[in-house]
Amino acid sequence: MRYFLELSYKGTAYNGWQRQNNAPSLQETIELSLSKLLRQEISIIGAGRTDSGVHASFYVAHFDAEKVISDNVAFVYHLNAILPHDIAISEIYCVSDEAHARFDALSREYKYYILPHKDPFTRDLIWQYYRDLDVDEMNIAAQSLLKHIDFTTFSKLHSNNKTNICHVTHAEWVVDSSNKLTFTIRSDRFLRNMIRAIVGTMVDVGRGKISAMKFEEILIAKDLSKASGSAPAKGLYLSNITYPKTIKL
Question: Which of 45, 122, 164, 191 is 20 to 30 Å from 56 at the Cα level?
Answer without folding.
Answer: 164
